[in-house]
């Protein structure tokens, strides 16, 4: 009897001493969104539920500037950006996407007060490209182009016909994909590591020598290619079929490529990847100021209460700032965009860093349609004391010029102000979702006042 009690006590002691294994591996997982590592909730990272990779939805949605609301009573998460709305409920195997019902492989779950949802749902319904690195436990998310790829289908016009890939080769710095029909894939680029991602819509694998099995990845032999580390491909989606090809690059400073299509072939020419591309440093002794009009092109930004796009407001104001700075003899002004185009965030950062700019100012507008009472001006910087000083100078001038509610100067990890190496700020001029503030922001006179305030703040910081 005594021996039995001793064995029982020893077994209980072992239970306390041996660490418990969980499937969450929260301290080992990372989420990278458009090159920026997200800060995950404490003790909750990427989890595996019934062989489905799950990620914290609030972290991703808020970094994409979605408005997130949590209803404790119904256990419902409502995510909105403009007219796009997604609604999920913990424990429910379906979601509402713009009033349409979407089935989920696994229901959202609550883990330590954090809602996690299937990674595949995030990628498909929030317009993101996704990669899951199982060995390193890294989820990489990338905002994809919003335009619909052009696919040439057979003359029959049968949209259900799937395009087939019969060969993938890489030679003479060219990736050549042989298909049944001409197709322009959606191409995105990612940093850390540098990758070119090609998604071929309505496409599956045909009679190929090495066809990856479901859920697996096949690779080309890249030995002897100094600037190409890896070329891998897989069936990224089943319904509808979509093939993804990823080229991972080595020792390149910029993404230089050309694409072309010919009968039955798609060609990506990387012959320029050895060329880091020209930089345009200004050596005339002037201070270099980069003005970044937020969003643009395929990325409209947020939506105003009267359905105006943030990208149009930011461009109008940025061009006014540019015009004023051109009159300053001690300043050389450079724009990240002057028309309705979309430079990626890494491209905006690279431009400023390559120029060795003195100041970087990114211009934006806020919107929370679910809270139309929200209003005011806020200014962001990231850690550097020089950025904080610049933020204080511009913010004070904006509050004086516009008279909007002072929401303060805040430290926040945003890619364009985190990865730039000079004094850098991001301005949220006001709320387009507030009726009075939107009306004021659209007035030419107020935009002129805001532009002058930004210029005055820059000059004060530069002691000009």
Short description:
The chain is an alpha+beta fold and 464 residues long. It has 9 helices and 29 strands.
Overview of this protein structure:
There is one protein chain. The protein has helices at residues 2-17, 57-63, 119-125, 310-325, 345-355, 385-402, 415-418, 435-442, 444-462; strands at 30-33, 36-37, 47-49, 52-56, 67-71, 76-81, 84-89, 94-97, 100-103, 109-111, 114-118, 128-133, 138-143, 163-171, 174-179, 186-190, 195-201, 203-205, 218-219, 228-238, 241-249, 258-262, 265-269, 287-293, 331-335, 359-366, 377-381, 406-411, 423-431. It folds into three domains: 30-143, Copper Amine Oxidase, Chain A, domain 1 (2-Layer Sandwich); 163-269, Immunoglobulin-like (Sandwich), CATH 2.60.40; 287-462, Aminopeptidase (3-Layer(aba) Sandwich). A six-stranded mixed beta sheet has the order 25-24-26-29-27-28, with helices on both faces. A five-stranded antiparallel beta sheet has the order 5-6-7-8-9, with helices on one face. It has a five-stranded mixed beta sheet with strand order 18-14-15-23-22, with no helix packed on it. The protein has 464 residues and is of the alpha+beta class. Mean pLDDT is 79; it is low at 5-27, 145-161 and 274-283. α4 (310-325) packs across α9 and α6 (385-402) runs antiparallel to α9.
């Amino acid at each position: 009897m005594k021996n039995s009690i001793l064995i029982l006590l020893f077994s209980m002691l072992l239970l306390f001493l041996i660490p418990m294994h969980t499937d969450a591996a929260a301290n080992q997982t990372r989420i990278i969104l458009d090159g920026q590592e997200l800060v995950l909730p404490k003790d909750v990272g990427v989890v595996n539920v019934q062989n489905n990779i799950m990620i914290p939805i609030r972290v991703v949605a808020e970094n994409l500037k979605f408005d997130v609301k949590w209803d404790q009573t119904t256990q419902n998460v409502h995510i909105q950006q403009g007219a796009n709305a997604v609604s999920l409920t913990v424990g429910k195997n379906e979601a509402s996407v713009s009033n349409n019902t979407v089935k989920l492989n696994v229901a959202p779950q609550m883990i330590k007060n954090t809602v996690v949802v299937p990674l595949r749902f995030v990628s498909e319904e929030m317009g993101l490209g996704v990669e899951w690195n199982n060995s390193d436990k890294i989820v990489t998310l990338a905002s994809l182009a919003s335009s619909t790829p052009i696919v040439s289908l057979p003359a029959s016009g049968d949209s259900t016909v799937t395009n087939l890939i019969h060969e993938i080769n890489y030679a003479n710095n060219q990736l050549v994909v042989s298909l049944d029909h001409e197709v322009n894939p959606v191409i995105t680029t990612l940093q850390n590591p540098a990758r070119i991602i090609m998604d071929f819509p309505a496409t599956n694998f045909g009679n190929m020598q090495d066809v990856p099995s479901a859920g697996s990845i096949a690779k080309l032999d890249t030995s002897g290619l100094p600037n190409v580390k890896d070329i891998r491909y897989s069936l990224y989606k089943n319904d509808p079929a979509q093939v993804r090809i990823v080229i991972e690059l080595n020792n390149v400073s910029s993404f230089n490529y050309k694409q072309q299509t010919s009968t039955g072939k798609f060609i990506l020419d990387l012959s320029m990847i050895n060329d880091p591309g020209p930089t345009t440093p200004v050596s005339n002794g002037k201070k270099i100021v980069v003005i970044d009009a937020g969003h643009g092109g395929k990325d409209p930004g947020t939506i105003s209460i009267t359905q105006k796009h943030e990208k149009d407001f930011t461009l109008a104001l940025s061009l006014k700032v540019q015009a004023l700075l051109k009159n300053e003899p001690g300043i050389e002004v450079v724009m990240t965009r002057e028309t309705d185009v979309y430079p990626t965030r890494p491209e905006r950062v690279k431009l400023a860093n390559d120029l060795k700019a003195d100041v970087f100012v990114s211009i934006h507008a806020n919107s929370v349609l679910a809270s139309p009472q929200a209003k005011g001006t806020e200014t962001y910087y990231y850690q550097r004391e020089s950025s904080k000083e610049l933020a204080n100078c511009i913010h004070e001038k904006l509050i004086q010029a516009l008279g909007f509610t002072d929401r303060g100067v805040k430290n926040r990890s945003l890619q364009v102000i985190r990865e730039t190496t000079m004094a850098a700020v991001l301005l949220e001029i006001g709320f387009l979702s507030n009726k009075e503030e939107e009306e004021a922001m659209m007035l030419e006179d107020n935009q002129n006042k805001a532009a002058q305030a930004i210029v005055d703040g820059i000059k004060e910081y530069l002691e000009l």
